[in-house]
Amino acid sequence: MNRITSILLPLITLTVALGVDPATASAGYDVDGDGNDDLLIGARRADHTAHNGGLAALSLGSAAMEDGPLYAPPVDAEARAGTAVALGDFNCDGVGDYALGAPLDAGEEGRVYVYLSSQEGAQLETYGRADFAWDGAAVTAGDHFGRSLAAADFDADGCDDLAIGAPGATPRNGTTANGVVHVAAGRPNGLQRAWSLSAGGSAADAGSKYGFALTVGYVNADTYPDLVIGAPRRTSAGTEVGAAYVRPFNVNSGSFPTSERRALTPCDEQTCDATDGQRWFGWALAIGDLDGDGAPDVAVGRPGEEEQAYQGEVIVFDGSTWFASATTIALGSAGELFGFALAAGDLDADGADDLVIGAPYTWLPWSSMETGAVYLVTDGLSSSAILSPEDYETPTANKQRFGAAVALGDYYSAGIEGPDLVVGASRAKDVHGIRSGGVYAYYNDGAGTMHAFDVITLDQWTLETDEGALFGAAIAQ
Q1: Contact 458/449 with Cβ under 8 angstroms?
Q2: Span 305-334, pLDDT tens digits
Q3: Helix H or strand E segment including 462
Q4: Three-class SS of residue 391?
Q5: What is the pLDDT of residues 247-287, one digit of tens each?
Q6: 3-class state of residue 409 by DSSP
Q7: Contact indicator for 391, 5 with CB cutoff of 8 Å
Q8: Backbone φ and ψ of 229, nearest 5°
């Protein structure tokens, strides 16, 4: 196993005042109770049950790296189950449950397949938009229910709840498909409909794809998890620039009140122009105290930023100013899609969170291949290092899409400070040379240095080839 190649780069930052409203997490999950967090990995184009039907596989984190169950729901062709995946205890029995989003199921209406623990083992329940349409809207093809998922115990009742993005749905009493996020509450008998969130009814929200991306964490001073919701096609000043909505959970009202909803945008609402358009701001999200000042910050990926033709960037909104100012991180070069995936955590155990940024189309300066890369931005956003497939002994590093997904958790080094890292490479080759995808695992030595550990591939479960399965394009965290 090769030593990690870490290259320190200058960090380009620009702090500007942004047009946000003037006011104003996720962690790993130990399914089998061995002290190590476990991985649920999606493969949305796997053919195991149906052509492009999709599936997810559970990898049990430990030094032995055991394979857990394979979850391949009875979907139709092209359903894309595993586009989003989530782990949580949705029926309050202390045992982990699993959710797979299938946004193209049933005529692109979308479904979420939930495997609930029981005495007999996992029990499948299917949730469609009809089940969660408590806002009164009719089931509609194109809702893409299940495009994104995020699990957290929002109301602190001991049961995890599940947020489900439906970026093509029409909100209650709405006339355009702006997008909806449904939040189902965990209960002893499983998930039950609870809250329905939308961006609002303004012209700027029309077709915004609200719910395309989701993340959970803590954005205010209380101890209840909150949501941040990506809407990459929202308009500002008539230009499609995208937005990220901060949706705090309010324990007093038992809901996500619209009065506390905040829209974060990459440019001032009054001055956005064509140069800001169609950059996919809100594609990826993360929450953490990234500058070490004690206030949670929100990082928003903008992988389509075109200063150097799809170089991409990440904008970090400062929680100490209730997101009224921000820092822009722009590393790499043209075509990388920097900011395609995000995760936040304290890698080096210094008390401040660090940022993991996927750039799946990277050509590394020292390589002749488009390997993809992951940037580790540390020390209060002042330092950076690069990870790539070339950290491993692999002759097939080209066009792996390394960085398509990232997740942090205590997967392999239980008891050592600092989370481990897993990186999805959705076009990696397995041992048979088939591009079914893979997940690269790095363990943290406690000082923030990531060491190459293992490569997880789909054939470990299926024992068959599955070209183009996109295993590793989604990882629950």
Answers
A1: no
A2: 665 578 899 999 999 999 999 999 999 788
A3: helix 459-462
A4: helix
A5: 999 998 999 999 889 999 998 777 777 777 778 999 999 99
A6: strand
A7: yes
A8: -125, 125
